């Protein structure tokens, strides 16, 4: 029996980056204790908030396998669903959980693709949690100011940003929308997202 810690990865993998979660293992994953954002190409990882939605999906899979195993071993009883139909039902439940719980959309993938073309980390900010996302955004803001010597907020406020600003501006606004959700930021995001997709032909 395996006893110890194990990192189950990689959830939401995109361009060799994604989330991993460390579990306490006693034969099977029992307790999630820490999540990481993993850069597979370099072997680096950063600690992030526990991404509990990954843990929930793992628990659903484990519970389904255990339930089907017990039903297979104990056999079918009178008036019970056949094992084949039971298997299909459990499989259907798992598919629904996979796609509807913590959905991952085409828009999410496009955002990550644009982040990947702009900066070294393509994580959606919600993968990281508030504290780490705030620190990552500070790095984006610093890169923007070092490159252009101007305030990104003033550019948006005055609507004076140019296409050359977008690779540096887009990551800042993506994380701004997550950290400080409001209609004004959402409007800026939608405008910049649309324009940056056009430039990158995405």
Describe the secondary structure blueprint for this structure:
Blueprint: E1 3-14, E2 17-26, E3 28-39, E4 44-48, H1 52-74, H2 83-100, H3 106-118, H4 130-148, H5 152-158, H6 166-179, H7 183-200
Antiparallel strand pairs: 1-2, 2-3, 3-4
What distance separates the N and C termini? 48 Å
Total discrete domains: 2
Beta strand %: 15-25%
Q: Give helix % range.
A: 55-70%
Uncertain spans: none
Q: Quick one: how many beta strands?
A: 4
Order of helices and strands: EEEEHHHHHHH
> Which structural category do the helix and sheet elements fall into?
alpha+beta
Give the biggest beta sheet: 4 strands, antiparallel
Describe the structure.
This protein is of the alpha+beta class and 202 residues long. It folds into two domains: 3-100, no CATH class; 106-200, no CATH class. 55% of the residues lie in helices and 19% in strands. It contains seven helices and four strands. Strands 1-2-3-4 form a four-stranded antiparallel β-sheet. Helix 1 packs antiparallel against helix 2, helix 3 (106-118) packs across helix 6 (166-179) and helix 6 (166-179) packs antiparallel against helix 7 (183-200). The termini are far apart.
């Amino acid at each position: 029996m395996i006893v110890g810690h194990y990192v189950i990865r990689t959830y939401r993998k995109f361009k060799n980056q994604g989330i991993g979660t460390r579990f306490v293992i006693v034969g099977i994953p029992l307790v999630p204790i820490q999540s990481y954002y993993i850069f597979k190409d370099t072997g680096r990882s950063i600690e992030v908030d526990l991404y509990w939605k990954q843990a929930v999906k793992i628990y659903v899979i484990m519970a389904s396998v255990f339930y089907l195993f017990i039903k297979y071993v104990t056999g079918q009883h009178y008036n019970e669903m056949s094992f084949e139909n039971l298997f299909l039902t459990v499989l259907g439940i798992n598919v629904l959980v996979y796609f509807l719980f913590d959905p991952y959309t085409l828009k999410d993938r496009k955002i990550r693709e644009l982040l990947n073309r702009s900066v070294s980390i393509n994580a959606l900010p919600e993968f990281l949690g508030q504290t780490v996302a705030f620190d990552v955004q500070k790095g984006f803001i610093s890169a923007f100011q070092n490159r252009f010597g101007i305030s990104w907020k003033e550019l948006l406020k005055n609507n004076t940003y140019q296409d050359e600003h977008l690779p540096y501006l887009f990551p800042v606004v993506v994380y701004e929308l997550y950290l400080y959700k409001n209609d004004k930021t959402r409007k800026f995001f939608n405008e910049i997202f649309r324009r940056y997709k056009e430039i990158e032909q995405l």
